[in-house]
Amino acid sequence: MDTRCAAGSGSNNVRGMGINLKTKYKVMISAAAIIAITAASVFSIAAEKLPQYRKITVTQATRTTMGQTLNLQGYIEPSAKQEIVVETNQKVAEVYVQEGQNIKAGDVLFKLDDTDAAYKLKSEQLSLKAVQSELNNLIKSENRVKKDMNYAIAQAEMQYKNSKDDVQAAKLKYSQNMELFAQGFVTKEELDASTKNLEKLEGQAKLNELQLDKARESLKGYGDERQHQINKLKNSIELIEMSIESLNSKIDISTKALIDGKVTSFKLQNNQYPFLENKKIEIYDLSKYVINTYIKQNEAVQVVVGQKASITITGLEEKTYLGTVAEIDETAAMPQGGSKLPMVKIKIVVDEPDQNIKVGFETKIKLDLNIRTDVVAINFQGIVEDQNGNKFVYLFKDNKAVRKHIETGIADGFMVEVIEGLIPGDQYIINPPERVQDETSFKLWSWGYELK
To answer: Are 422 and 338 contained in the same domain?
Structure first.
């Protein structure tokens, strides 16, 4: 009995243990499920809030030398140039040089035939004498003409006065005849005769008055007319003198070189008139090659005479030439090409040209400005700017990015000078993710990163 009881009791214990194990298993499974669901939820939330996995780069602020580089363009030119354009209406008598010849300043290049010019010159000189004589006569005749005109006025005044006196006498006679006719002492024929005489004398007086007015107007208008004639003759003299000067320049002409150099274009021939295609002569001084280019006015104040520049020729980029700034214009101007800003022309001399350099070649020039040594510099991609223009970088410390305000200076390509906020060796993030650029700090566990 006891054994059965023991057995029964043992059976109950076994069942009890089975029930407890099942319950534990269920609890463990439920807990695991809850943990899995919770983890999935957390991962889901994190996935929504954290940026997608990406690699960011961490590097250091460095101490270096920086400067701004101007990239300019220009064309190879001779150091000096003389151009002569020969008129096509004058024959070339003789030429003394040929294309490709080296010459000195003062050398005679050619002589023009002056036969036609000499004939025209003589004709113009005769015309000048004739017009000058006419002008002198006009000026000398002034007193005589005025004297004659004043005499004519005096005569007209006298005639007008006499005619008025005659009219007064005729009026008196007419009045007397009227009284005598009324008394029967004068006939009708005598009265009519006195009337006709009065009318005649009044008409003559009116005519004399008109002649006096005309004489006075003639004297008054003489000055204006005379001045007009004088101006007309003076203009004629000026035109003739200009023609004579031009013709004199064509007499015994021997055109000379003004510079030392090489005759690069010369097609004139003896005893022939120049054509439009060959009337231009060019002389180049090839002792030096120069490049004229333009820079902005704010850049010009940073350039000095003697400053060096690097030069490459289009198509010959494998070699870099050195150049020296030789001249800087004193004034700014608006160059051709559509620029809206005043530009300053500078001249750069090629230091050691070789046989590859030719006039007219296109060049690219690099001119370093504002060179600064021993400055702290960072990559421009590491700079974040807020809406107020403040600039920041994210420093890398203890697996964490911390926002740091900086002040910047000059920029040189990809590098920017840091005036305040960093020291050499400070580690910063080159490419901070855009989604966290407004944060003051963030951890880097959700991004991969590399040190450079």
So the answer is: no
